[in-house]
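--- STAGE predict ---
source: upstream dedup step, 1 unique chain passed
mode: sequence only
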Amino acid sequence: SLVFEPEAAATWCKHLTPDSVQDCGETTGLLTTGCFLTVDIGGGTIDVTAHQVERDGRMKVYNLPCGKICGGTTVNQAFRTFLGKEVVHDEEFETYLKHNKNSNC
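--- STAGE serialize ---
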């Protein structure tokens, strides 16, 4: 069967060991109980899901991922608009941004 990306990430996170996590501060071993979030930041959407690991090892999901439209592409577009209107104050730059929406600028 298929699962949502946050569910797959949560299952993977549940099985992390201290040796498999680098530069993330202190870890205490396998996640046997407790709550955690998975955050999937994609190009178009952000999905945040809250999970709890029960004492028997099963995971409870507190909310379903709903894909809010505020992913990387939306952030990039807002930044481009900010640059054009608030920082550069140049009509030619704004025209460039309008005609080159897929550029890495």
